[in-house]
Amino acid sequence: MTTKYFGEPVRRREDARLVVGKGRYLDDIGADAYAAAFVRSPHAHARVVDVDVGPALDVEGLLAVYTYEDLTGPMAEPLPVLIPHPQLTHARTGYPLVKDVTRHVGEPIVMVVATDRYVAEDAAEKIAVTYEELPVVVGVDAAEAARVLVHDDVPGNIAARHHQETGDVEAALAASRHTLSFTQYVERSASMPMEGKGVHARWDDADSSLRVYSSTQASTSVRAAIAAKLQLSLEKVEVIAPDVGGGFGVKIVHPWPEELLVPMAARLLGHPVKWVEDRREHFVSSAHERQQRQEITVGYDDDGRITALDVLVWHDNGAYTPYGIIVPINTATQLLGPYDIPVYRAQVFSVYTNTVVVTPYRGAGRPQGCFAMERTMDRIAQERGLDRAEVRLRNLIQPDQFPYDWGLTFQDGRPLVYDSGNYPAMMAKLMALVDWAGFPARRAEAEARGRLLGIGMAPYVEGTGPGPYEGAHVQVLGSGKVLVSTGLTSQGQGHETVFAQLVASELGVPMEDVEVTTGDTRRFGYAVGTFASRAAVVSGNAVALAARGVREKALRIAADVLEVDASDLEIADGVVGVKGTPGATIPLRTVAVLSNPLRYAFDEAARQATQFAGTSDDSKPPVSPGDAPGLEHTDYYSPIRSTFASGAHAAVVEIDPATWEIEVVQYAVVHDCGTVVNPMIVEGQVHGGVAQGVGGALYERMAYDRDGQLLNASFMDFLMPYASEVPPVDIDHQSTPSPLNALGIKGAGEAGVIPGSAAIASAIEDAVGRRIAAMPISPSELYDLVRSPSAERVINSSPHETGAMA
Amino acid sequence: MTSTERTISVVVNGVPREATVPVRRLLSDVLRHDLGLTGTHVGCEHGVCGACTVLLDGQPTRSCLVLGVQADGHRVTTVEGLSRSDHQGGQVLHPVQEAFRECHALQCGFCTPGFLTTIAAGLDTRDATQPITDAEVDELVGGNLCRCTGYANIRKACRHAAEAMRAATGAEVATSAPGEEAAT
Q1: Is residue A450 less than 8 Å (CB to CB) from chain B?
Q2: Which residues touch A91 (CB under 8 Å, ≥6 apart)?
Q3: Is there a single domain that holds both residue B127 and residue B101?
Q4: Fewest 10 Å CB contacts: which of A119, A218, A493, A623?
Q5: Which of A492, A715, A729 has its CB closest to that of B107?
Q6: C-alpha to C-alpha distance for A438 and A666, rounded to whole angstroms
Q7: Region for A310 from its dihedrals, namely left if φ exceeds 0, alpha if ψ lies in -120 to 50, beta otherwise
Q8: Do B134 and B173 reside in the same domain of the chain?
Q9: pLDDT at A800
Q10: Is the pLDDT of residue B104 over 70?
């Protein structure tokens, strides 16, 4: 009997190499490569008047210096707008190296190549760039005011006006029994993977081909971009994502300038070239996310049920829009959460500022959306004197309302239709897990200790697993080894393990026989990438389909050999046999050998498939028309639309009124991502997401000054959570399988981060009785808020009071 | 060898090694690029993240804050040196390496070598017969950054490793590691 793999907490196979230092990350490749370093703009907005490379030329070991003037053909054109959208009317992107005007601190102006990185930095330091400084736009408010333009030809700094609605929101608001309006802010954070970006390129002159390693989330598309920009035929470019030290979104953007410039230099110099981003470079030149101003108007009835919701989002997209308006579309569509909202309108102004580009960071606009919706729920509860949980329960979409069609368009260009879910059950689990009803007693106990205790909750719905597609190839070798490849990349999510579980289960082979390769265009050329919690959904289903194709072929061949009907056969532990009948069996590896009729016996196993072995039926050609040699199958999964995972978080914060230090003392998560392939890995994703949620709520903030200088571009100053900042996380699961795919999977990668700021803001507000309208919040900001006479006072109703006041 | 280079002798993972390196080269770069030990990872180059932690004469040390020449005459242990040969062509992992695998204490694996060296040093120098306390776990995992795991499983692995080492001493083993229930 084959061991059960699907749904089991199987140990990760990646870890065998990673715990002994045998991983292969970008900087572990190519010890002989030349090193690239960059001169980056020290100004947020400036005209480049002159670049004097002269003083660098004496540096021993310098090999090449490139400026914009050295770029030719498509390399001299702007970088691509990856995701065009009709409402992105003023898309702008930078050049691989700055042409004339730099628009944020950190833009690359000169690339230096030298014998090693130390020498390259020596040379870069000697290059003198003359700038004419220009006025600077920082923050959404300044962008909206538009006294200064980031791009001369973009009026009002507005890249896009995005607008979606489900009905006449103004009429619905006018007809609402109550309305309230408010404005709130979310600040910038960033993916901040422990490994920055990096590129290694090797040009093969004899073959006129290029092999590129990049620490990317999208190797197939990096390949296409390099081919286009360097004017190479696609088959002459290979791109491989090696072990990648975290992504969280920043590595889905491509091609980064360095992904084009390093291959260009490798080709020109005829020698491998490598660039490894250092931490400061990562802060000032890789993407950030999250800054928005949200203007919300909500209509509701006496019972706190929402009758209309109108949201205006000012979204800071940074200096350019390489990734289009995916992030604000996510905010606009995902803020609806698990609630049944009769009339809704979202308007987004995506605006330019002289700061690093804004592209998806885990959650990708959803945390801001959740913050908008959940703070709205809290306000309605406060205004109506209702328990905050009660207001949420009254507004939930009910289990019999699925599929729930919003009449909106999601970020994948497809209808926003919730496929399945059970939100009331989810909320009930959360309230039990965090003991919502028992909280007043805990608050009293904390007060007796001189501490302020507060609780908050935030459910969410997350669109996961968007298309257009992913594919997979599964092949059984004559050795019995099963090779699996998918073009989708991995950055620590355990795809080697999860996809091996799927193939072992589908094919009936031991998991140790399965080898998985991800993100290598030599092995699989068609893929989209790893983002939007889509790997398990889209690649997972593709891998399962490919394995089923192999199984079907194996059974067909085995049926011929065993002279039985294929439908009577099964595969278990890598052996094909007749169901319920011991005896007549054939190992899968033998089926693999027989699947490929041979002339030459290159090894002992191959003898069985050669032309005089007597295994071939003389009445038919060795390979039947329409068939192909080899026990392999390629298949694709293309979802009709996204699946919708859901969850609910609750946070309990304890605040010391002497220092205003905020400690998250309890964090509860209920999580529903449909069918789970490996619960250990899903829990790991939740844990990691929660840590980033806590970081985004209390610690992480990109501190730009008015001149567009990033003041905290180091790990000394940009505070990411250590173990001491992350609370223990209690997790309860629910599984509402997706009806949209055969495995019932919904995505899990981003979920943990989405409600963090919303739940923690609610808890802090509950503890201190002051309105929290901007996140993140530090102890000193909280101190100022509590002391400010103008701070809005807030009183939450306790659970046990709800009945009396409702 | 130029005037800005020195030849250094370092015992790395028990093996005497020599390298001629520029005096300004960081120990992390010497290990990775001159000695080919790429298991040590560089996450920030300013001593905060701890990914590059190695053991210098047994003490956890940020190799990005030490020059290679400063290691001259000293012993360095990297993640590659935590496991030992089983004398049959295989490797015996350090208990903390086993525990990281068992407890899913790593995802992307980039910060992992720094955690492993730090925790291994701590566990190897404590009284293994005593159950590990939460405060000890906090101390061992508290100085390194991880962006993937949220630390819960790193704490759990630390406890598991301590318990395995305690079991190996023959001390009475608890039915579950202390604090285990908080990390499930």
Answers
A1: no
A2: A81, A84, A159, A160, A321, A324
A3: yes
A4: A623
A5: A492
A6: 14
A7: beta
A8: yes
A9: 57
A10: yes
State which fold the A292-466+640-805 domain adopts: Aldehyde Oxidoreductase; domain 4 (3.30.365)
Best of B63, B147, B155 to disrupt the A interface (most A CBs within 10 Å) is B147
Query: What does the pLDDT read at residue B178?
Result: 46
pTM, full prediction: 0.95
Position B172 confidence tier, pLDDT thresholds 50, 70, 90: low
What pLDDT band is residue B173 in, cutting at 50, 70 and 90? low
- Would the CB atoms of A21 and B142 count as touching at under 8 Å? no
Q: What residues make up the domain containing B22?
A: 5-81
Smallest Cα distance from A453 to chain B, Å: 21
Q: Name the segment(s) of chain A with CATH classification 3.30.365.10.
A: 292-466+640-805, 467-595+630-637
Which residues neighbour B168 within 8 Å (Cβ) at sequence distance 6 or greater? B95, B128
Q: What is the Cα Rg of chain A in Å?
A: 28
Report the residue count for chain B.
184
Interface check A19 vs B, CB under 8 A: yes
Of A15, A118, A688, the CB nearest to B148: A688
Last residue of a domain, one of B54, B81, B108: B81
Chain-chain contact of A31 with B155 (C-beta, under 8 angstroms): no
CA distance B145 to chain A (A): 6
pLDDT at res. A209: 98
Structural Rg of chain B based on CA atoms: 17
Query: In whole angstroms, how far apart are CA A558 and each of A138, A317, A365, A620, B57?
Result: 68, 58, 51, 16, 61
Fold of A467-595+630-637: Aldehyde Oxidoreductase; domain 4 (3.30.365)
| Nearest neighbour of A723 by CB, restricted to B25, B42, B141 | B141
- Of the residues B52, B108, B136, B184, the best mutation for testing chain A's interface (the one with the most A CB atoms within 10 Å of its CB) is B108
In this structure, are B27 and B109 located in the same domain?
no
CB contact under 8 A, B149 and A244: no
pLDDT of amino acid B174: 52
| Same domain for B41 and B29 | yes
Predicted pLDDT at A802: 43
- Let me know whether B120 and B58 are in one domain: no
What pLDDT score was predicted for residue A806?
34
Say if residue B147's pLDDT is above 50: yes
- DSSP assignments along A381-426, one per residue: HHHHT-BHHHHHHHHBPPGGG-SEEEEEE-TTSSEEEE----HHHH
Which residues of chain A are under the pLDDT cut of 50?
1-2, 801-806
Do both B93 and B169 map to the same domain? yes
Provide, as residue numbers in chain A, all residues whose Cβ is less than 8 Å from the Cβ of B107.
Answer: 246, 492-494, 684, 688
Both tokens assigned to A32: 């002989």
Partner-chain residue, chosen from B51, B148, B151, that has the shortest CB–CB distance to A492: B148
Contact A25/B at CB under 8 A: yes
Are A723 and B36 an interchain contact pair (Cβ–Cβ within 8 Å)?
A: no
Contact between chains at B38 and A27 (C-beta distance less than 8 A): yes
Structure tokens at A527: 């893929």
**Domain identity same for B179 and B143:** yes
Q: How many CA atoms lie within 13 A of A465 on its CB side?
A: 30
pLDDT at A624: 87
Q: Are residues B22 and B106 in the same domain?
A: no
pLDDT single digits (tens) B121-141: 999 999 999 999 999 999 999
Count of domains observed in chain B: 2
